[in-house]
Each structure stands twice: as C-alpha cells, then as structure tokens.
Amino acid sequence: MTMTTNGGTTTGSAAAVPPVHRPITDRQWATLLETRALHPEAIQDAYASRHRPRRLVSERGTLFLVAADHAARGALATGGDPMAMADRRGLLDRLLTALAHPDVDGLLGSADVVEELLLLGALENKVVIGSMNRGGLAGARWEIDDRFTGYDAAGIAAARLEGGKMLLRLDDDDAGTVPTLQACADAVTDLARHRLMAMVEPLPYARDDSGALVLKQDAYALARAVTVASALGTTSSHTWLKLPACDDPEVVLGATTLPCVVLGGVPSSDPAADLHSWARSLRAPSARGLVVGRALLYPPDGDVHAAVDAAAKLLRSVTDSAAGANSGSGA
Questions:
Q1: Which helix (H) or strand (E) holds 38?
Q2: Does 55 have pLDDT greater than 60?
Q3: The whole model's pTM is what?
Q4: What is the rounded CA–CA span in Å between residue 145 and residue 184?
Q5: CA-CA 20 to 30 A from 19: which of 33, 92, 220, 227?
C-alpha cells in the first residue's frame, strides 16, 4: 500500500516559518492516516519491497543526506518557531521536496519518519540511515545520558536499511556520558557484524553557569571527541563520523582516517554563511559529504529546493576542485 507523490496544493504554515509547496495531496495525507490506523502491516511490506541503492556513496564518492530525527529528541524549534517541526505534514512536505533533488542520496531519520516516507514512496533507491539513540531529550537534566530508544542494529538489518546513526555527546563532568559511550560502542560492534554503516556523531559539551549544555568548538575538544569516537567498538571497519563544521578542519578531521560527513548544525539567519562554513570542512581529505536537516528543510525564505540545490552545488564544487587538484598533482 505504497503511495506516490505527484504534486499538490499550497498552504500556509506556522507564522515564523515561511510556507512551502505541498507535495502531499489531501487524498495522500488521508490515505497515510488510514494506513497507519487500519493497515500497520503495510509498513513492513514497504520495508521489504524498497529498492535499495547499489552503493552507499554516489558515483562521485560522496554522500549527501537530509536529516530528520530532531523531533524524536523533542527538538522542535527552528527559524524562530518553537513548534516548527511539530507540524508533521509540513515536515514531510519539506522532506519530499529535498529528497526529490537528484543530488540528495538519502535520509537520516527516526523510525516514524522513515516509515511515513516509505509509505509515500519517497525512499526508493535512496540511502536510509536509521537514528538509534533519541533518549537524551533536548533540555532535560539527563540529556547527556542518551539512551537508545530508536532503531537497534538488528532492527536496521531486518528493515534493510544502510546503517545506523548515534549521537555521542561527551561531557567530562557528567557521568551520564559513560552509559552513552558504552551503548555507542556496542552499537558500532553490532552494526559492523551486519556489515552496515555506523555513523557516530561525537560532540564535546560543557555546562555554562546556567546549567545549559554548550558545544565546545575549539580544535582540541573536537579532535579529542573524534579520536574517542574512532576507537569505539571491536572494529572501526564500518564506522563513519558526523562532525560539525569548524574553524580548524585540518586538525579536527585530520585526527582520523575514517570517512567523515559534515553536519549542518543549528541553522543561522544567513544561509550563505552556513555554506561557507560547510565548505571549509568539506575540503578536508577525509570529508565525504553533508548531512543537513533544519538548515535545508526550514530556510529563511521557505524555498527548500533552492536551499538543497545550493548545498548540492557546494558539494559538487568542492569535490570537483579536489579531483582537479589530485589530477594535477599526479601529472
């Protein structure tokens, strides 16, 4: 009972978030809701029948994913609207627009989002990475203790996904870091047993005077997090790292031989500045692509396709420049 997306209507959205074209028609939305209620078996059928991509990376050797696992951790705010990502139809509309771009290789998402997009027929021949630990709810006192409440390795393998992603926030002053470290190590090992990608997102944090978690962005803290994440599990053979754009990518990304993707992070009000920041890190030799969520799905002007296209052109430009430099050095 797979539904396809082929045009729709245009409606408004939350006041602080510009409207977006609606690829999902009213009929498709009603069918999705009915399927959820009356035909849950259709989800397993959709997992089983999905056409998987022939390879994990594109022919250019890069990986460009759209991320949509924020809401599962209670992180709903973007673009000045604290409830932006709570509008599920609006989120799916934006994801369908992003996934339709030919340079977007696939999705990183929680199970509910993955399954809705499966039912909408949007994940055929796409790389799908399942989000695994979503228990560290945004703003909670236990946020660092990020329990695995989403996909597990066995479920990812059974669902025929291409891998699993885990968030690893490191706070030396919070003992909640320890069980998260252990859980991530176990997940890396389990995914490797299935020969599936383990995408680890290591982020060093500390609490400010108010008790809020703040990302440490200096080269030492980021490089230290990279080295810790690189060594997780009984093998690193299938591990990728998801890292923030930074001012010293040659130091931070130079701390590992593992393939790395640059994460979009919290979007600024200046998309051009975001692109410039991503470009700096993408030039590092170990960088293989982009994984971006809110910055592309909720751009200031509401034009999701244009935001995705700009990121795609950036990735192509950096890749072409690197290929040209390598060709020149071998001449």
A1: helix 26-38
A2: yes
A3: 0.92
A4: 11
A5: 33
